[in-house]
Amino acid sequence: MGAFDVSQQFAEARIAQLELSDKQKTAARLVLGQCAECHSFGVVGTDAAPALGEVYEGKVAAGAFEYSDALRQAGGQWSRDRLLAYLTDPGAVAAGTYMPNPEIEDPAVREAIVNVLQALKEEPE
Q1: What is the extent of the structural domain holding 67?
Q2: pTM to 2 decimal places
Q3: What sign does the dihedral 114-119-124-125 (CA atoms) show?
Q4: What is the pLDDT of residues 9-66, one digit of tens each?
Q5: Fewest CB atoms within 10 Å of the CB: 16, 18, 22, 103?
């Protein structure tokens, strides 16, 4: 997706507004870059992964993307706590998910990513 994804630019700008150290902001931007390798930040997904623009508090495995059986069977919604757990260890939340572990060590960076997901949902550009 990259530089031409306006929603990604919004997400990156949102990181700059958060109360994080410079090191944490850099780490959060790197994580967003990792996300962008497969996901879009808007509402239309890619062939590789679903869009992230409506994930926050949305239904798990919603939309036309071909989700893993693990996520389809998980059901429920993407609450803040569930997203934080998924970003910590996707396989622990949904064993067999296609999502690789993003290996985000710093809890503040995971919180920042969830804050971005919330902003994408609540404040579309």
Answers
A1: 2-122
A2: 0.90
A3: negative
A4: 888 899 999 999 999 999 999 999 999 999 988 888 888 999 999 899 999 999 889 9
A5: 22
Nearest-CA neighbor of 74 among 62, 84, 63? 62
Q: Do 55 and 83 meet the contact criterion of CB atoms below 8 Å apart?
A: yes
Separation CA 43–CA 123 (nearest Å) = 13
Mean of pLDDT values over 92-121: 95
The tokens describing 65, both together, are 């993307």
For residue 79, report the phi and psi dihedrals to the nearest 5 degrees.
Answer: -70, 165
Cα angle 49, 51, 56; round to 5: 120
Q: What percent of the chain has pLDDT over 70?
A: 95
Residue 79 belongs to a domain with what CATH number? 1.10.760.10
Q: Which residues contact 11 (CB under 8 A, 6 or more apart)?
A: 32, 41, 116, 119, 120
